[in-house]
Amino acid sequence: MKLNPFDTGNINVRSSGGGGVGKAGGLGCGTIVIAALGYFVFGLDPFQTAATVNSVQQGSQQAGPSNTNEQEICTSSEYAREACNGLQSLNQTWAATFEQQGVGDRFRQPTLDLFSGGVRTQGCGSATSDVGPFYCPADQTIYIDTSFYDQLANMGGSSGDFARYYVLAHEYGHHIQTLTGISDQIRSVQQQNPRMANQLQVRMELQADCYAGVWAGKNRNLIEPGDIEEGMQTAAAIGDDALTQGRVSSENFTHGTSEQRSQALRLGLRGDDTACDAITNLS
């Protein structure tokens, strides 16, 4: 995907926890799958609530040291540069979408935190690389350990750049849900009806996939041959059924099956964000 180079005046980015960012090894595919299984068993969302779980276990913690020199962070590695380019494009696309719908004043940029190994968030406690990328609504920050991108290919996802943009755009989708109030609505219903918690979480994740597709659909001129295929391959690789390999029953799924995630991404690729509304429609 051909994105314009980032402008540090148009993005909010920092790095924290465990040192620098960049390509790294450390976690095998089995580690990620085992971690995911643990969260599926408890009916939690590994990409959104793991940090909160760790916070409860370890007690309240302050955010770790942060580097807020955007230029230095964004040029520290190939993955970091790519993430900053993607964040800028997402900001521009969604800011314009909010403006077109007459609610431009509701748009706020999220912060992107690139970390390595582990991170102490400003709003959701602590998290390790095991949980993969996640969004913290309390501090409106997307947290990504860039070593996850190396593991993504090992999990059956694509190693292409669009696969990584899809992951970032999915987490950005959770930010959109926070801004629009969808996230709060779903959480409220989950508390009122705990038996529906996982099914509602699946809807949240599928809508975030749809929003990721909307971003790509609104930037069709930047799509390169093979990009869509990379996205679909990655969506299929991180479906609940693929990650758990049949070891977890479908009622404990939290992100949706490979087919559901692919369908949600494909729906968003039409470029119409309102088409994603039906996924979380509670009426």
List the helices and strands and how they pair.
Blueprint: E1 13-16, H1 29-41, H2 50-58, E2 66-67, H3 70-74, H4 78-100, E3 111-115, E4 118-120, E5 126-128, E6 134-136, E7 141-145, H5 147-154, H6 161-180, H7 182-192, H8 197-217, H9 227-237, H10 240-244, H11 258-268
Parallel strand pairs: 1-3, 3-7
Antiparallel strand pairs: 1-2, 4-5, 6-7
Helix pairs in contact: 4-6, 6-8, 6-9, 7-8, 8-11, 9-11
What does this protein look like?
With 283 residues, this protein is an alpha/beta fold. It has one domain. Helix content is 48%, strand content 9%. It is built from 11 helices and 7 strands. The chain has helices spanning 29-41, 50-58, 70-74, 78-100, 147-154, 161-180, 182-192, 197-217, 227-237, 240-244, 258-268; strands at residues 13-16, 66-67, 111-115, 118-120, 126-128, 134-136, 141-145. The protein has a 5-stranded mixed sheet. α7 (182-192) runs antiparallel to α8 (197-217). The radius of gyration is 17 Å and the shape is globular. The N and C termini lie far apart (37 Å).
Spell out the key features of this protein.
283 residues, alpha/beta, 5-stranded mixed β-sheet, two-stranded antiparallel sheet, 7 strands
Structure, briefly:
The protein is an alpha/beta fold and 283 residues long. The protein is built from eleven helices and seven strands. It has a five-stranded mixed beta sheet. Strands 4-5 form a two-stranded antiparallel ribbon.
Total strand count, please?
7
Strand order of the largest sheet: 2-1-3-7-6
Taking pLDDT < 50 over at least 5 consecutive residues as the criterion, the unreliable ranges are 18-65
Q: Give a quick account of the main beta sheet: strands, pairing sense, barrel closure.
A: 5 strands, mixed
Average of pLDDT: 77
Distance between the termini: 37 Å
User: What is the strand content?
Assistant: 5-15%
* Anisotropy-based shape: globular
The value of Rg in angstroms is 17 Å
Work out the helicity level. 40-55%
The total number of structural domains is: 1
Order of helices and strands: EHHEHHEEEEEHHHHHHH
Total number of helices: 11
The structure class reads alpha/beta
